[in-house]
Design a protein that fits this description.
Elements lengths: L2 H26 L3 E2 L1 H11 L1 H16 L10 E17 L3 E21 L3 H67 L5 H35 L9 E2 L11 H11 L1 H21 L5 E14 L10 E11 L7 H67 L5 H35 L8
Parallel strand pairs: 1-4
Antiparallel strand pairs: 2-3, 3-5, 5-6
Keywords: Cell outer membrane, Membrane, Signal, Transmembrane, Transmembrane beta strand, Transport
Organism: Fulvitalea axinellae
Protein name: Membrane protein
């Protein structure tokens, strides 16, 4: 081995060792971020979730009896007119003519009967508030599902980074062993060079794993509503799986699924819209009253000192006889909209039942895959130790050792992937059954 190669690989080992050591020391100095912590932070700081909650507040503000027309309408009015000019008088010639009039008043109008339109409008506002609340939960659940994906992608990347460090360490030991055997004449130059090539490849794998880890950490920070550069350490402990039962999940899905509840609320709103439109077939009765003050003067006078007052009051009965069939068309369309929303409820029910069945199958398959990958890793670890021992004794080739090494690293990576996929399948079941988040 030339002096140049020795120096090059020495620098490579030093830089990679420093990278791994610095990473470990930095990570140990930071608090762990569990999935539950990430959910809590997202619920508090995620910008999209804040927008969803503001939309619900708007619907909450709209649920007022004044918006439904239960309160009377009170208007105040006032006017001022001033005129000045000349008139031609046959006896006296031109005479100046000046006059001023002032009036002010207050009027009240109250609907006594409108075919129960105001009652149904208030009911509609209450249902729109309920719809906004369910929509908020639906949107938050989608954000948390994306958060779970980002979190477990980061967990996988962090695990793969650790696995890459393990692979690099194994290759470093192999290079040192190959060099020692070559110096004692027990191995060939080719074996040393092959070990160095494999070490170089493992170093690139480590660098790429670190890059992926950093990128996914930045991505998760955005879900937490903070700068992408905020540093943290992800917890490497996967929480235990919940005890989920198929029948119980189905019952909870029918009762709590946000998408299904949205369709039911929308159907209620459409039925109330139809009642509101049908109220136009009934007569409308309004009560109105008011008091007005008027003053007229022959000259400009800013003092309102001698007004005359007038009180008025009465009832107004109105009934739409013909409006070009506009109301009739609106009533027809309202009936069609109710039918459409009834179909949407039925379609949504079919969809969530399908989604639940598919999600349950994926969940069960992923749990089985997780069990298999755990067994595979146990077998692969035993196989690697045996291959390593025989390789050190010179009974196996470097190719055999490298294959066993790659199989070990792949088995570790497959187990991590299986863990992440199983947790994401669990999150999907919780989302479908309305258990992922409850909007207070």
């Amino acid at each position: 081995m030339t002096t140049f190669l020795k120096k090059s690989f020495g620098l490579l080992f030093l830089s990679l060792f420093s990278l791994g050591t610095a990473f470990c020391q930095t990570e140990k100095s930071k608090s762990l971020l569990s999935f539950e912590d990430a959910v809590s932070l997202a619920l508090e700081y995620n910008l999209n979730i804040k927008t969803f909650r503001n939309n619900t507040k708007i619907a909450d503000n709209n649920e007022a009896i004044g918006n439904a027309g239960f309160y009377p309408k009170v208007d105040a009015s006032g006017s001022f007119n001033y005129q000045k000019g000349t008139v031609q008088n046959p006896n006296f010639g031109k005479l100046e003519n000046e006059s001023m009039s002032t009036s002010t008043g207050i009027n009240l109008t109250y609907t006594l009967f409108d075919g129960l339109s105001n009652v149904n409008t208030y009911r509609k506002l209450k249902n729109e508030k309920d719809l906004a609340s369910v929509t908020e939960r639906f949107d938050i659940e989608n954000v948390l599902t994306q958060l779970a994906s980002a979190y477990y992608q980061l967990y996988t990347a962090a695990s793969n980074f650790d696995i890459a460090k393990e692979g690099l360490k194994i290759s470093q030991e192999r290079v040192a062993r190959a060099e020692a055997r070559f110096e004692f004449g027990n191995d060939t130059k080719v074996a040393v060079l092959q070990a160095q090539v494999d070490l170089s490849n493992d170093s690139l794998t480590l660098l790429d794993a670190k890059r992926q880890y950093d990128e996914l950490k930045h991505n998760l920070n955005i879900f937490l509503g903070r700068s992408a550069t905020v540093d943290f350490e992800i917890s490497m402990e996967i929480p235990g799986f919940k005890k989920l039962e198929r029948l119980s999940l189905r019952e909870q899905t029918l009762a709590e699924n946000a998408q299904y509840l949205q369709s039911l609320r929308q159907l209620k709103i459409s039925k109330l819209d139809r009642k509101i439109i049908n109220s136009t077939k009934m007569p409308r009765l309004d009560f109105n009253t008011g008091y007005n003050w008027n003053q007229v003067a022959d000259s400009f006078d800013v003092e309102f000192d001698d007004p005359s007052g007038n009180y008025s009051g009465g009832l107004t009965l109105s009934y739409n006889i013909f409006d070009g069939n506009q109301q009739r068309i609106r009533r027809k369309n309202a009936r069609i909209q109710v039918m459409n929303d009834e179909l949407q409820v039925a379609n949504t029910l079919l969809q969530i039942e399908r989604d639940l069945e598919n999600a349950w199958t994926v969940y069960q398959n992923n749990l089985y895959k997780l069990k298999v990958q755990r067994n595979n890793l146990a077998v692969t670890e035993i196989n690697f130790e045996q291959v390593k021992e025989r390789y050190n004794l010179g009974q196996l080739t470097a190719t055999d050792f490298r294959e066993a090494q790659l199989n070990l690293l792949k088995a570790r990576s497959n187990l991590v992937t299986a863990q992440s996929e199983a947790k994401l399948a669990e999150v999907e079941l919780l989302r479908l059954s309305g258990q992922l988040v409850k909007v207070q």
